[in-house]
TrEMBL record:
Name used for this protein in its record: Glycosyltransferase
Lineage: Bacteria, Bacillati, Bacillota, Bacilli, Lactobacillales
Source domain of life: Bacteria
InterPro entries for this protein: Glyco_trans_1
Protein source organism: Fructilactobacillus cliffordii
Ranges for domain Glycosyl transferase family: 295-433
Length: 486
């Protein structure tokens, strides 16, 4: 069985989760079996699965297994329960002390709260309220199945410790921390599917070291690199690693395969270890439907219609695009800019729009699950992200006939955008936003006032190699090759 390992998924997700969803569809296309493994307690897991089109039989959650029992490992969640609303108990100072709720998987979750000094930030004089202990019950029988503590530490943050499993196949089991519990879970799913497991790691925290140390017999490990493996390469001799991939990079030859999203990132990773050439491969984490629609070189709308789509997060720097569009508007160009997505930066972006007096032509459109049908209503796509491991939205936009304007950043933009052919790549200075605004502004001006039809005609042809069947074939070859090679 092929297991996709992640910590959680939700109603809104990052590019990592969307890459997993896309891979699941390609595994179906290649007739490769799979299960999602989620390690965190996710109260709204099945509601989120419904939103993203995952079936109950395709997902295994650690905590649901510990409550629901052995049959869950093979079948997933068989019967859903009507979730019950939160019941919060407070003390006479109106401080939260206990919360209870029932999930749609049939778990009663009881969370106990503490009030005390900030252990993670000792200099903070404000008393904190947080979860100190959690109990999980099987709602159908009222049986307590799990209890654990949440420990806060100045250096290690918040950690799950002292985990008790009650009546786990007739035994009371204890785990000091998540390392041992995750190992127990991985061994259980491996045994449930008769061994020869392929563990495909999407988020390595609490998984990579567990699986690489004392390897489960006959298992294989495939590590997915979703972002730049380096924080920077300013010093070619001593590059600074991305913390998320440090363990993998230090134990590269213990991994059966490392999968990057682009060929450029594969080549870059091999700079630091050329001997890993047979380990590292590139498979796209997104793509387009089979059969490319040739673009005819249509004319742009007037006013020019510009779109972006991403999480509204600081690292996406959407405010740079807003300022560039406002400058163009102030120069007399007729342009509308729609921003799709949601996230913690929404209020900041609303403020930026007001400061630029751009309310009439820049709009926050919210989250959409139908971008495929929205893109054709626009003329071009802009991204101001400083780094994209792949850039799924770039491919979607190009396939819909939209030229892309973005920064010349590692790795997705450099692989997908051909400067002056299907869009424009512009220079980036990470510490100079005024410079970055000007660069995006100049490129958009060139696109709008130049030979737009020529760039538009080249868009979909440029993503032909990213058709779904081609990616499915790459995964079939990789998975089947795990048992015939290293």
């Amino acid at each position: 069985m092929n297991f996709f390992i992640n910590q959680a998924m939700g109603l809104g997700n990052s590019g990592v989760e969307h890459a997993e969803f896309y891979r699941a569809e390609r595994f179906k296309q290649a007739k490769l079996p799979f299960r999602f493994l989620f390690l965190n307690l996710v109260p709204e897991l099945h509601r989120a699965m419904d939103r993203w089109g995952l079936h109950d039989s395709e997902v295994l959650n650690l905590w649901e297994y510990l409550v629901l029992g052995e049959s869950y490992l093979k079948k997933g969640l068989v019967h859903r329960t009507k979730p019950q609303k939160n019941v919060m108990i407070t003390d006479n100072t109106n401080t939260n002390r206990k919360q209870e709720f029932v999930t749609d998987s049939g778990m009663r979750v009881i969370q106990h709260f503490y009030k005390g000094p900030d252990k993670q930030h000792p200099d903070n004089p404000v008393l904190q309220v947080g979860i100190s202990r959690v109990e999980l019950y099987l709602e159908r029988t009222g049986e307590r199945k799990v209890m654990y503590q949440v420990e806060n530490d100045t250096h290690r943050g918040s950690n799950v410790v002292n985990i008790h499993l009650f009546n786990e196949r007739g035994r009371h089991l204890f785990f000091r921390n998540l390392y041992g519990l995750h190992r127990y879970f991985f061994e259980k799913v491996d045994r449930a599917y008769h061994g020869n497991s392929n563990f495909i790691i999407d988020r390595g925290e609490f998984a990579d070291d567990v699986l690489m140390q004392n390897r489960i017999p006959n298992s294989k490990i495939v590590y997915i690199v979703h972002a730049d493996q380096l924080a920077n390469r300013d010093d070619p001799k001593y590059p600074l690693w991305n913390d998320h991939y440090e363990y993998m990079l230090e134990h590269l030859h213990q991994v059966d395969r490392v999968v990057t999203a682009t060929k450029l990132q594969r080549d870059d990773l091999l700079i630091d270890d050329p001997s890993a050439r047979d380990i590292v491969t590139a498979i796209p984490v997104g793509g387009v439907r089979d059969g490319i629609t040739q673009q005819s070189g249509r004319k742009a709308h007037r006013p020019f219609r510009l779109i972006t789509a991403s999480r509204l997060a600081a690292e996406k720097h959407v405010d740079i695009a807003i300022k560039a569009v406002a400058n163009l508007h102030n120069q007399g160009l007729k342009i509308n800019f729609d921003i799709y997505g949601q996230g913690e930066e929404q209020e900041k972006l609303e403020k930026t729009i007001k400061e630029q007096h751009a309310e009439e032509y820049v709009h926050l459109k919210g989250l959409s699950h139908d971008l495929e049908n929205i893109y054709p209503n626009y003329d071009a796509f802009v991204s101001t992200s400083f780094s994209e491991g792949f850039g799924l939205t770039y491919i979607e936009a190009l396939n819909a006939g939209l030229p892309v304007v973005t920064f010349d950043a590692r790795f997705g933009a450099q692989e997908l955008i051909q400067n002056g052919v299907n869009g424009y790549l512009v220079n980036l200075k990470r510490t100079d936003d005024d410079y970055n605004v000007e660069q995006i502004q100049v490129a958009l001006h060139k696109l709008i006032t130049g030979n737009y039809s020529k760039l538009q005609a080249a868009t979909s042809k440029s993503v032909a190699e990213f058709q779904d069947q081609i990616t499915a074939d790459k995964w079939r070859k990789l998975i089947n090759g795990l048992r015939t090679s290293k």
